Amino acid sequence: MKSQLNLRKAIITLLFVVISAAVFAQTGKISGKVSDGKTGETLIGVTVKIKGTTKGASTDVEGRYLISALAPGKYTIEASYIGYSTKNITEVEVKGSNATIVDLILEESNSQALNEVVISASVRQETVNSLYLSQKNSVSISSGIVADQIKRSPDRNTSEVLKRVSGASIQDGKFLIIRGLSDRYNAALINNAILPSSEPDRRAFSFDIIPSNLIDKIVINKTASPDLPGDFAGGVTQIITKDIPTQNFLNFSVSTGYNSESTFKDFYSGKRYGSEFLGFTSSERRLSGSFPANRSLYADASVADRIANTKLVPNNFAQQEYVALPSSNLQVNWGAVKQLSDYKFGSILSLNYRNGQNIQQAFRESFDGINTVYEYNDNNYRFNTNIGVLAN
């Protein structure tokens, strides 16, 4: 009996130890990149530490640093480097086990003597300053937005983010208009690679397939420079995605929308099949295997055979009545990072799905002088499904 009590006490004690360890193990990180304020180049060997503590790190060959094992709370980080003014960044908040990204910009010291000069800034100002630095060092006129600003907005994809950049607007929820010029006069790059057209009948890219939380920054160049494509009149959009994540993550996002002109109203279209909600043509629409393989076989056949072959075509062209459902949006984002010796490997994957059913009124008139010869008034029913995949 006594041994059973001792065993029970040991198990309870062990459970308390495990629970306490799990609670106190919720430590976060602060990471980022340190750049020169004049040239924009990353700095190697910069000392970045938590002020008032012994915790800190030095930047690697890519100018990146990582300070781990931090309890939740607000900290002040200090960056120092020989020949540069020391910089303090205040109000850096660490939440749980998440990594807080703080990119730093150091200014060269104007004095020849190595006197201590300390510059203080808030973490929010410092993040935006990295964008201003790249704009200042660019030979072209540009506008942009960075990840810290995107994170504070409700935008789910890149097309919604681009609305916030000056001189840019969005058409049909996905095509970019720069300075009033349509997509055919603009160019787009992702990680310095030219984006192909996503449309079969126009030169355009559908920016709504790129999730906003995978964007590091977006810059729209409005004047030419030797490092940009030359086939544009409006602007060149440069999308830089996050490369190696600071920690493993898996995020889900689900949203829906209501349109007072369409949702739950009568919706007319051709017959739809289940797989078409995923953007794929259903096998029900395929021609029968007995149907002639080419036009000549059909044309050279007898009248009776042509009639018989015509009857093989699926008769699914009749108008069907549905109810327009609310729009839906689903995103799944996954990231992983692995440190192997002196090398770091990372990957990011994003899947997104959208569906929308909209009703729009169409009105058109044709005239012969002052006389109306044709008048058209009807509703357009648009059923759109999109699936996007992004991997880095």
Supply database-style keywords.
392 residues; alpha+beta; 5-stranded mixed β-sheet; 6 helices; 22 strands; 41% strand; elongated
Cα radius of gyration in angstroms: 29 Å
Q: Taking all residues together, what is the mean pLDDT?
A: 82
How do the helices and strands follow one another from N- to C-terminus? Answer: HEEEEEEEEEHEHHEEEEEEEEHHEEEE
Spatial shape: elongated
Cα distance, first to last residue? Answer: 61 Å
| DSSP strand count | 22
Which range does the strand content fall in?
A: 35-45%
User: Biggest sheet, open or closed, and with what strands and sense?
Assistant: 5 strands, mixed
Characterise this structure.
- This protein has 392 residues and is α+β, with helices and mostly antiparallel strands.
- 16% of the residues lie in helices and 41% in strands.
- It has helices spanning 2-24, 123-137, 147-151, 158-162, 295-299, 303-310, and strands spanning 28-36, 47-50, 56-58, 64-70, 73-80, 86-94, 99-101, 104-106, 118-122, 142-146, 168-171, 175-178, 187-190, 193-194, 215-221, 236-241, 249-257, 266-269, 320-323, 327-340, 343-368, 371-391.
- Strands 3-2-5-6-9 form a 5-stranded mixed sheet. Strands 10-15-16-13-14 form a 5-stranded mixed sheet. Strands 1, 4, 7 and 8 form a 4-stranded mixed sheet that branches.
- A hairpin with a 2-residue loop joins β21 and β22 (371-391).
- The mean pLDDT is 82.
